[in-house]
């Protein structure tokens, strides 16, 4: 077996491994199916390499030649789709379809012009170079400039240049052989298959690493997110509050905490059912998400209990935010409840002082919340410095959502 033939066999084995790896990554991701597009890409590589092996054995190799071209075109096209989806860019379906139609016509005509025809070589390689350039353009247009993004952009740009240079390399190295049988022994074949192997492995490893990282982020987010409200759960909230408070302490910036509790929530569940109770929670969470600034951390920390961590806000700003949420929720008609029925919430607001821990801050905010409950609900109460301890059973049935 020639050197090029040996590399061709290695490429076939590597493509199979990458296809399997991407399928496994895709199967373990609930929402991101980008990995399946790369699995399809490497599956098409296997078909293409199979055509490369079979073509020298055919008395009339043109059909296998065209099949190999289409298989490799689909390899790169699937890569374009995967990159576009990963970088949240529109997939250029129309452009890829038009390019394929033109390329098929050009390659059908070019095949009969001879193996060393410049037209034939460019007709074969330029569509591949264009697809790689399309994928690189998706990354460039995304605006992402992290290390992985730049590495992927570099590999795609290098791939495009490599395909564009192949007709020139063929001319410099003595051509692509007199026939499909002699191609595999040429210097050009050794160059082509070696570069293909390097780019295949580099791109596969980069995308696998990136998608595996995305999968870990997704798993972490699921463990820190409340599925009903779409907000952080208590675990996710506490982790971000600890880090945020440390950052604000270093910068000497104000911090406020708002805690809130839905009024008479148990009666909603008892009267209208738990499904309606879930709808009330989702409605309140939607208002919080809509009104909260990006810097805020919003969480559902218990059944009908919510917390909002507000870095950079003082007590006055936090109270204004809480009043806005309270007013919006009390004016909202929850779908499914009677027209006359309105739900309300009570709020406690505390501004952090440098001597406090997170638990101290929460305790003061909770004390203000319970004071709001005692004073009639559907109101915001600002914590006073004197309210430094949690009252014991401040109001009957608070624990049951009264």
How does this structure look, described?
This protein is an alpha+beta fold and 402 residues long. It folds into 2 domains: 221 residues, Rhopdopsin 7-helix transmembrane proteins; 167 residues, Alpha-Beta Plaits. It contains 13 helices and 5 strands. β2 and β3 form a beta hairpin. The radius of gyration is 31 Å and the shape is elongated. The termini are far apart. The C terminus is likely disordered.
Descriptive terms for the model:
single chain, about 400 residues, alpha+beta, Rhopdopsin 7-helix transmembrane proteins, Alpha-Beta Plaits, 2 domains, five-stranded mixed sheet, 13 helices, 5 strands
Layout of SSEs?
Layout: H1 3-27, H2 34-54, H3 62-86, H4 93-111, H5 118-142, H6 147-172, H7 180-183, H8 187-223, H9 234-251, E1 255-262, H10 265-272, H11 274-291, E2 297-300, E3 305-311, H12 315-330, E4 345-351, H13 358-374, E5 380-382
Parallel strand pairs: 4-5
Antiparallel strand pairs: 1-3, 1-4, 2-3
Query: Based on DSSP secondary structure assignment, what is the total number of beta strands?
Result: 5
Q: Given the C-alpha coordinates, what overall shape results?
A: elongated
**CA-atom Rg in angstroms:** 31 Å
Structural class: alpha+beta
Residue share in helices? 55-70%
Average pLDDT taken over every residue: 87
What is the gist of this entry?
The protein has helices at 3-27, 34-54, 62-86, 93-111, 118-142, 147-172, 180-183, 187-223, 234-251, 265-272, 274-291, 315-330, 358-374, and strands at 255-262, 297-300, 305-311, 345-351, 380-382.
């Amino acid at each position: 077996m020639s050197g090029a033939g040996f590399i061709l066999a290695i490429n076939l084995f590597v493509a199979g491994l990458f296809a399997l790896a991407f399928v496994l990554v895709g199967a373990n991701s609930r929402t991101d199916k980008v990995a399946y597009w790369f699995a399809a890409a490497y599956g098409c590589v296997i078909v293409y390499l199979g055509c490369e092996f079979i073509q020298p054995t055919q008395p009339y190799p043109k059909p296998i030649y065209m099949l190999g071209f289409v298989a490799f075109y689909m390899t790169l096209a699937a890569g374009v789709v995967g990159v576009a989806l990963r970088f949240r860019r529109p997939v250029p379906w129309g452009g890829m379809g038009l390019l394929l139609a033109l390329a098929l016509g050009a390659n059908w005509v070019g095949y009969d012009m001879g193996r060393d025809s410049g037209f034939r070589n460019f007709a074969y390689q330029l569509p591949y170079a264009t697809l790689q350039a399309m994928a690189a353009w998706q990354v460039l247009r995304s605006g992402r400039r992290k290390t992985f993004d730049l590495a992927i952009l570099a590999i795609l740009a290098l791939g495009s240049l490599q395909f564009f240079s192949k007709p020139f390399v063929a001319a410099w190295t003595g051509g692509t052989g007199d026939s499909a049988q002699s191609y595999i022994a040429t210097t050009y074949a050794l160059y082509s298959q070696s570069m293909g192997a390097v780019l295949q492995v580099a791109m596969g490893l980069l995308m696998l690493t990136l998608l595996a990282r995305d999968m870990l982020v997704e798993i972490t987010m699921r463990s820190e997110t409340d599925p009903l409200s779409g907000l952080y759960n208590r675990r996710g909230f506490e982790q971000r509050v600890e880090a945020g408070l440390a950052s604000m302490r270093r910068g000497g910036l104000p911090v406020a905490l708002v805690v809130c509790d839905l009024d008479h929530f148990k009666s909603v569940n008892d009267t209208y059912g738990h499904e309606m109770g879930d709808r009330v929670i989702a409605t309140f969470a939607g208002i919080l998400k809509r009104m909260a600034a990006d810097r805020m951390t919003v969480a559902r920390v218990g059944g009908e209990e919510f917390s909002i961590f507000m870095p950079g806000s003082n007590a006055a700003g936090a109270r204004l935010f809480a009043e806005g949420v309270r007013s919006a929720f009390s004016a909202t008609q929850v779908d499914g409840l009677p027209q006359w029925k309105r739900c309300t919430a009570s709020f406690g607001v505390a501004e952090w002082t440098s001597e406090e821990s997170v638990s101290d801050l929460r305790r003061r905010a909770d004390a203000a919340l319970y004071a709001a409950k005692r004073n009639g609900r559907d109101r915001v109460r600002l914590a006073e410095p004197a309210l430094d301890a949690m009252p014991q059973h401040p109001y009957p049935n608070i624990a049951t959502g009264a």
